[in-house]
Amino acid sequence: MMRKLFLLLLIGAAVWFGARALVHRGEVKATVVFRHARDLSKGDPVIADGAEIGVVTKVSHLDGDDAVSIRIDRDHRRDVVSDSLFAIERHRLLVTNSFAVGSPIADGAVLRAHNDGVSSWLAKHASAVEPLIAKMKRAADSEIEKLDEKHLDAELAKLKEKVPDWKAEGADALDHRLGAMKSRVAKIEDDLRRSNKAEEARKVKEKFEKWLDEVQR
Q: What pLDDT is stored for residue 117 in this prediction?
């Protein structure tokens, strides 16, 4: 009798753990480190763009800081990226991506919240300046789209003046812009080769590689 009861308990536990794993499959767990997270506790919501995307699972002390463990729902696992901004407001963990250009975080990622006043303000009030940021991003992308073999020298010279601003936005922003330019130049090269203009394609590649080397110094 005891053996049967023990066996039933094992089967029940296995079913429970299996069902729990199935329910949480695809979710992302991460840790956000704050200087202080005194207003947060287990069960508090994680909010992005006004919607609840996850939950706080634990708050613990870590070398003088507070480590906030979160679990992001599977449908929102791309809503937290490597350079998201975080803030704490009324027992909620706020996530802002208005200025983010990073990649979605991997399961188990550890992120550090920016504790300066500007970052905290932006994390809470990004919606107020989001239209301006979106306009600036569109303007930068528009400049990159203008690249073609006929005006390459002039456009690269203009874009070189913008590189300091891209660097000021952070390494991820710079990588994003340069990556977009690499893709654009690669298309120009491909179009030239398809038109039997291999020599022109070679010159475009050389010009861009020289420009890239200069701006990355």
A: 62
Across residues 146-174, what is the average pLDDT? Answer: 76
Which residue bears the tokens 């690269």? 156
User: Rounded to whole angstroms, how far apart are CA atoms 183 and 204?
Assistant: 13
Give dist(CA 139, CA 180) in Å, integer.
Answer: 13
pTM, two decimal places: 0.50
Find the mean pLDDT for residues 5-16.
Answer: 52
DSSP string, 74-108: GGGTTSSBTT-EEEE-SS-EEEE-TT---PBPPTT
pLDDT for 52: 94
SS3 137: helix
Taken in order 72, 77, 79, 82, the sign of the CA dihedral is positive
- CA–CA separation, 177 and 140 (whole Å): 8
131: which 2 tokens?
């239209």
- With vertex at residue 119, the alpha carbon angle to CA 117 and CA 120, rounded to the nearest 5 degrees, is 65
Q: What digits encode the pLDDT tens for the residues 77-99?
A: 888 988 888 988 889 999 888 76
**So what's the pLDDT on residue 24?**
44
Between CA 196 and CA 201 the distance in angstroms is: 9
Query: Which stretches of 24-151 are DSSP H helices?
Result: 117-145
Q: Residue 121: which of 131, 112, 129 has the closest Cα?
A: 129
Contact at 8 Å (CB) between 18 and 62? Answer: no
